[in-house]
Amino acid sequence: MVSKNNKFKIIFLILGCILLWFPFTLPLIFAFFSLVQNGHFLFDFLIPLEIFPVVLIGALLITATFLISKIHMKIIISSLIGVICSLLFVLIYSQISGLASGETGILSLSGSLIVLSIIIYYFSAITIGIMGLLHLKRILKNNLN
Question: Which residue in 5, 38, 39, 132 has the most C-beta neighbors within 10 A?
Fold first, then answer.
């Protein structure tokens, strides 16, 4: 029998994982269709940044589940902080440095800092997503036994 607390955890984890992983799978789906239609593999790695509210809501749902469970809180919270801070850095610094308007090229120190911040965003969000999937697997396995 699944307890009421575990039902909420399962619902939060499933919704959180769907919302978090959706923006990361979209570029792969679009690249596949582009490859089939045009013969070119066009991968838009900025889609998860462009629809960041979806990633953020998914990450918050997964983080809430970990906070309720009181496990792996340091990893999840530090990854959530990494997602938020790196996203804010990209948004603010690209405006300040001129990368957003095209005044500064991507092949500069400013561009390198933006790319590094995007990598941190990806790693932080994917860490939350993987932890969410593992936690969902653990909860489902315990409830089936």
Answer: 132
Segment 30-41, tens digit of pLDDT? 999 999 999 888
Model confidence pLDDT, tens digit, residues 17-32:
999 999 999 999 999 9
Q: How many domains does the chain have?
A: 1
CB contact at 8 A, 66 and 73: yes
